[in-house]
Amino acid sequence: MELLRSLEKEQILEILSDVLCSHCEDLLLARISRLRKRTEYERDDIEYYRDRFDTPRNGHAYEFSGKRYGMQDDSPRDYFQRREYGLIVERSRLGEDSSLSYSHRKRPKLTPHPDFEILLNDGIGGESPLGNRLSKEQKEGIRCSLVQRKRDFTYFENVEGRNINVLEGLELHKRVFNVEEQRNIVDYVYQLQKMGRNGQLRGRTYSEPRKWMRGKGRVTIQFGCCYNYATDKYGNPPGIMRDEEVDPLPPLFKQMIKRMVKWHILPPKFVPDSCIVNIYDEGDCIPPHIDHHDFVRPFATVSFLSECDIVFGSNLKVIGPGEFLGPVPITLPVGSVFILNGNGADVAKHCVPSVPTKRISITFRKMDDSKLPFKFSPDPELVGIKPLITYSPPHKTKTGHDNLKSSEIRQDDRRSF
């Protein structure tokens, strides 16, 4: 091959013009066919990008309707990610204006990449040199489209004489926060933990109980309200402590809330106004429970550092310290958002068995208006958040995951909860 690269074009043609055996001819024909097919895909990429970024359809520039995939094993999402990453790298390298016609550009090199590198400069991940030629709306539309959504969790149990799907209402949204954003959030949580240990957080914001047995001693940091997990020594029942003060939601967490609403993960009518951070060490757990109805549904849990299972069932059993038995374990990947609503929040109990390694979760919830702390006032930054209109409604695939389909996007197109 090295010798072939050293030859001129005319010399290569001279070699190929000589008579070849039938086997070599077949081999050469197959290679030419593969090369033509690859060229077709690259041409499709250019047409796709031109339509996608330079010629908005129906007034909306973020329509995902690709039918061809760059490699045989590519899923539509993998293909979109591979193509977008190649385009962004090429634009950043050449410093080209996104309005230039593709006939005047070098074809983008379509480079596979393990994690999508567009950062949104929204207070979570900071700005990235990749994607700096795309508008904020374009970058957010691309990132939103890459979220993998599963909403068809099913497990039927007999509850009070009725056979019902106890997982109805559960949703898993993967790849909401990329690696860089996860790192920034985790670093911030550790800063909060340090502040809590130094007594720099208000009232009962920070709690770090003594680890007196396996599964006990999980660190919690509460914002927006103080939640009492069990009847305390003063006789206060479980629920929101309306006369206790804790710190308000930090700016970084408010940015996370905005993203979840804008990306159609949480409904705009139920914007969270409180959250609890759980910092797990190896062996820590959360026992079986149903979340208190001082919080309205739905609510969201974001996972960091390591994936773990959350177990569901109408009748979960405790078989030992930190060990629980239930019919349905659901794996929560890092960077994902898990939504609890419907039967999944109110009929089925859930628990987190002892985690094998360090983990952080942040659960965002909205308080019932009648249970708000006495000194609570709404945060103006969390009022009037609207979902992206560049989001195309998903349809189910045979695997149970949602894929984006090509359809006209309407201003009032909102997913109902």
Automatic annotation (TrEMBL):
- Start and end residues of each stretch annotated as Disordered: 392-417
InterPro entries hit by this protein: AlkB-like, AlkB-like_sf, ALKBH9B/ALKBH10B-like, Oxoglu/Fe-dep_dioxygenase_dom
**To which species is this protein native?**
Senna tora
- Which family does the UniProt entry place this protein in? Belongs to the alkB family.
Q: Please tell me whether the keyword Methyltransferase is annotated for this protein.
A: yes
Q: Which GO terms describe its biological process?
A: methylation; mRNA catabolic process
- GO MF, one annotated term: methyltransferase activity
Name the UniProt record assigns to this protein: RNA demethylase ALKBH9B-like isoform X1
Where composition is biased (Basic and acidic residues), the residues are 399-417
Q: Which UniProt keywords apply?
A: Methyltransferase, Transferase
Occurrences of domain Fe2OG dioxygenase (ranges): 271-368
Keyword Secreted present in the record's keywords: the answer is no
Q: In terms of domain of life, where is this protein from?
A: Eukaryota
